[in-house]
Amino acid sequence: MTATRSLTVPATRTRRRRRATGDDTRKVNWWLTAVVAVLSLTVLIPLYFAVVTALKTPDQLAGTGFELPTAVTFENFVNAWNLTEFPRTLMNTAVIAVGAVVLTLLTNSMVSYAIARNMHKKFFKGVYFYVLTALFVPFPIIMLPVVQETAFLGIDNQVGLILLYTVYGLSLNVFIYTAFIRSIPIELEEAARTDGASTWRVFWQVIFPLLGPMNATVGILTCVWAWNDFLLPLVILSDPNARTLPLAQYVFQGQFNTDYTTAFASYLMAMAPLLLVYVFAQRWVISGVMRGSIK
Amino acid sequence: MTTTAPPSRVRPLPDADTPPGGSGGGTSRRRVIGRTPRAFYWMVVPALVLFAALHTVPALIGIFYSFTNYAGYGTWDIIGIGNYVALFQDDRVLRAYGFTFGVAIVATILVNVFSLLLALFLNAKIKFQSAFRGIFFIPYVLSILVVGYVFQYIFANSLPQIFSGIPLFRDNILANPDWAWLAIVTLTVWQGVAFSTILYIAGLQTIPQELYEASSIDGASTVRQFWAITFPLIGAFFTINMVLSMKNYLQVFDQIIPLTNGGPGTSTESITLLIFRGGFQGGEYAYQTTNAVVYLVVIILVSLVQFRILQRREVDF
Asked: Are B60 and B46 within 8 A, CB to CB?
């Protein structure tokens, strides 16, 4: 009985929230809608710039940049594709981001579970606060030594980056996860335990599935971070073939900084993958991030 | 009720991971709960070792090197607090701190003002609400470095032509040592608003609608409602947003590379950029590690002070 009741708790919570916004019967504020529409141009205009410039030939570049291309050319994309070795760069980025997300979800949730269920014990409480202190340590303080360390350990590559994202995300993720895990009724686990489940089984079969919404939040935050990060790959990766998308833009810009049209095609190609995913998963991404903040 | 009281608490947990010895009895409820299954340690310890190895150890190594004259290669000696003394007399370092704090403070204020306003707009009854939310969140999913190159083009090529009447923009703001920081703030705000807005919307949705209904019956204006209800009730979100923004923008780096790369001269060199350059390319490994240690202390102090001031305001309500 208790099991089924508590299982529905998270579900009712989201349903209630949706109703609160859905039942809004106030009149549409058209003035405000117009204001917001104008404001949204601040986001859309830079994107517009990227698209039209990427479609132009160099001799169409004169002017403010607002002008539409007179003759659309896709040659820029072909050039950018080759110059940045796009397939490999994309693959590198994807491997790092996916690896970081998977490893983060599996390990960080586990650490949080052990901490949340043993908060009353000195050891676990100590671990909790120890990990949290990392929230306040700026990256530059570890930047120089960690580069030496990863080089020494031979993980100055994608594997190392995956590990670093997993470890550096731990403090924030433990913070998000533990608050949520503590709201999961302990009776659920005890029911499983009386049926003979071990702690591992309880975690994988009872707790981990219940973490769904938090996993979504943590997954999104980690993915966006690992995908777009620039400084960490810049200092860690030693092999140019391991280059990620932001790094490729950086190197590319240094070598061809006058070739604007090709550069813009390259920028657009670097932005496109996550932007495309976002366009399709937009509602889900936003609600996921919001859920993480409400805890 | 008594029958539904979890029997599992009374009976010893048949947990395979329970450390052997003494678990047989289990008559005392305290003892059963008090025992930590070994699995919990397996869940934490490997991650903890990795965390210590890749986060704490580098931090400690950094602090150690700050007392040496290590150049990043070759031999080194311990030189005491020499680096610290030199640091506080180094104009370039002081300028980097001035620049970084200027950008961080202005960006934090602007991001929070804009995103709070935007969150209020997006939470009001407007048409296409979720579509607009979707648009304003776009900057968050884009790489700031890549967007920065697009902004670089806009600042360097488009604005001079559009605002050819305004000397500041006509002459390319990025090449102006006094005003290039403004471009960096613009890009920072452009991206930062996205995330803060979502956090504020989340905060606004925790406020019960009834409060607004009651206050509008009492004849409160929209402005009054904001100061009397909305702002106090999202106090915690305001605190978090302010502290996180400040901490993030004190680490400004990705924005600077595409826009000015630290220039003109060193006028837009942030602390992070200086540590990166001096540490990796300038043979100042130990010296810039010292800079990083000081920077750590500064960031912690700033965060603590912010928390104290902002939370006091929360309590006052």
From this structure: no
Residue contact A140–B209, C-beta within 8 A: no
Q: What is the pLDDT of residues B269-289, one digit of tens each?
A: 999 999 999 988 888 999 999
Tokens encoding A275: 């932007």
- What whole-number distance in Å separates Cα of residue B151 and Cα of residue B154? 5
With a cut of 80, say whether residue B142 has pLDDT above it.
yes
Contact A53, B153 (CB under 8 A): yes
C-alpha span between B149 and B261 (Å, rounded): 11
User: Is B257 close to A224, i.e. CB distance below 8 A?
Assistant: no
Q: Which residue has the tokens 């996205």?
A: B194
Domain boundaries along the sequence of chain A? 2-60, 76-294
What Cα–Cα distance (Å) separates residue A71 from each residue in A55, A94, A268?
8, 34, 19
B200 lies within 8 A of chain A by CB: no
Q: From A249, which residue of chain B is nearest by alpha-carbon distance?
A: B146
**DSSP H helical ranges for B154-179:** 159-162, 167-170
* Spacing of C-alpha A85 from chain mean position: 24
- Specify the DSSP class assigned to residue B88: T
Q: Measured between CB atoms, which of A30, A167, A290 is closest to B198?
A: A290
**Is A250 close to B145, i.e. CB distance below 8 A?**
yes
Locate the chain A residue with the closest alpha carbon to B270. Answer: A140
- The structure's pTM equals 0.86
Contact state of A190 with B8 under an 8 Å Cβ cutoff: yes
**Size of chain A in residues:** 295
- Give which of A142, A206, A290 to mutate to test B binding, by max B Cβ within 10 Å: A142
What domains lie within chain B, and their CATH numbers? 91-313 (1.10.3720.10)
Task: For residues A8 and B242, give the distance between their C-alpha atoms in angstroms, rounded to a whole number.
Answer: 35
Superfamily the domain A76-294 falls into: MetI-like (1.10.3720.10)
Q: From A67, which residue of chain B is nearest by alpha-carbon distance?
A: B158
Give the nearest partner residue to A274 out of B4, B141, B205, using CB atoms.
B141
More confident site: B189 or A140: B189
- pLDDT recorded at residue B95: 94
Q: How far apart are CA B196 and CA A278, in angstroms?
A: 18
User: If pLDDT is split at 50, 70 and 90, which confidence band does A170 have?
Assistant: very high
pLDDT digits (tens, 9 = 90+) for B221-268: 888 989 988 999 998 889 888 988 998 999 999 999 999 988 888 899
Q: Which DSSP string do the residues of B37-67 spell out, in sequence order?
A: PHHHHHHHHHHHHHHIIIIIHHHHHHHHHTT
Contact call for A294 and B134, based on CB within 8 A: no
Rg (CA), chain B: 27
